[in-house]
Structures are given as C-alpha cells and as structure tokens.
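Appendix B. One record, verbatim.
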Amino acid sequence: MNFKKLKVFTTVCDCGSMSRAAKKLYMTQPAVSQAILELEEELDVHLFDRINKKLLLTYPGEVLLEYARRILVLVEEAQSTMKDIANMNTGKLRIGASTTIGTYLLPEIIRTFGQKFKNIDIPFAIDNTGVIEKMLLENSIDIGLVEGPIHSKEIIVKPYMDDELFIICSKNHPWAARKRIGPGTISEQNIIIREQGSGTREVFENTMSKHNIPYSIKHVLNNTEAIKKAVEANIGVSVVSEIAIKEEIKSGRLVKINLEGVRFLRKFNIIYHKDKYHSKLFEEFLRHLCSGNF
C-alpha cells in the first residue's frame, strides 16, 4: 500500500467510476483498475461492489476510505510544512548557552534573530559549559555558545569573541581604594567561585595554576548574579566576566581589580557536533551570530 494507490482509491470513490477517476488523474482506465486490484490483493479485502453498473463501497472500503483521507491530508500537511521549513517560514532551532553568555548575550541574539524569522521556534537552555557540551553530544540541542573549554573530539569549536575575567570586590572592601593588587595578597581572601564544570571557574583555576598563585575557595555558587550579590555584601571576592559587571561597575556597587602580571583571558566559542546537518536555518543563525547585528 502506497500513497499513489491510496490517491487512486479516494479519487475513484469521489468520482464514482474508474473511467472518470482515470480522466481526473491523467491515467488510463486499465492502470486505475490495476491499482485498485493490487490494493485489494495487498489488504486481502474487496473494496467495491458493482451493482446496476454502479461502484459501491464495501464495508472494508468505507473503513479504508476514512483512513486514506486522513493519511493523504497528513501527507499534504507534511509536504507543505517541509516547504515552509525549506523557505524558513517555519522551523525549530535548539540553542544551548553557558551561563554568562546565556544571561548577558543570548536574549538579545534570540530577539534580533526572531525579528528576522518571526515564525521560527527557538527553545534554549542555559547551564554551565560541561552540561551544554553533554547536551550537544546527546543531540538535545543543535548549537551552543560557551565560554569554557570543550573536551570532546566529536564537537566542532569555532572562536566567536574575546572575553576577559576580572577580580571584583565590594566598594567597602580594602582593595576598592587600590584597584590593583599583587598576586600574593589573593591567598588571604575568601574566594567566591562558580561550580565545577563552569567555564569561568576553569579559566580562573588554569590561570592561577599557570602563575603558581595560591588561593582559597570559600563559597561555591552556580549563579553569576548570586555571586555578584555576595561580593557586593562583602562576603568575599570573586572573578567574573567583564560583560556581567558593567552596570555594577558603572554604579560603583562593585570594583574591578587588576591582578599584577595576570590576565584572565578566554574565548567565547560557537560549538556544534561534527556530524550535524547544516540546514538553511542553522546556517542563517551562524551568519546572524557572526554579523554582530544585535
């Protein structure tokens, strides 16, 4: 049983005769008769009775007609939807972002992309880099934006933009008046840091290790906003992305501290699975990201 035979069957039902159905379908009458005969043989039922030179549906024929109409409508809907997807009139793109990017960059990226493609569904997930990497490997998302290192060889990593982390303290902290400290003084402070798997934490720890600078982690929080509030309350100091502290620095609630001889540099990266099919929508989103028009 295939779509062509179902189409022949429903047309015969609508036209009431093999000859009229053949004319409507631009087929020969023997070809229409053969399609109906093959359908009956495949299903092992009799679909039509011929009474007084009229074709009348049998009970199996009535049941099949109901299914056939539903199937053909679904096929037409599928074809129409595929056409819309191909023309980017509809579609879905699943995005994942690590916490800093997801909080401070992704909303505007999605908003401006949605203005260009109004009927596109863009579900997104925000978590640490490790979780976003795992979601990509499990095909839970199509594309990711992360700030931390990626460890799987199955994932393509494309540099997106530069970022720098800064040590921050409260305006009431002794460091606030200095704004520049020596590496040795940081070991005396309570560090508030992101959880394991966070790109921010990995960059901080790798940089500190590279420069042989001792430090003491006092509090672990999985939310940048919570960290900023804790630092503002003078519970400790932390290291966060520059893009996450613009408002607080401007208002004076937090102070950005330079660590002498040390910079916490990193790349924001676009990531996707190496075997991922690049649909038109996927490519358009990549172009949108690289354009910076948001």
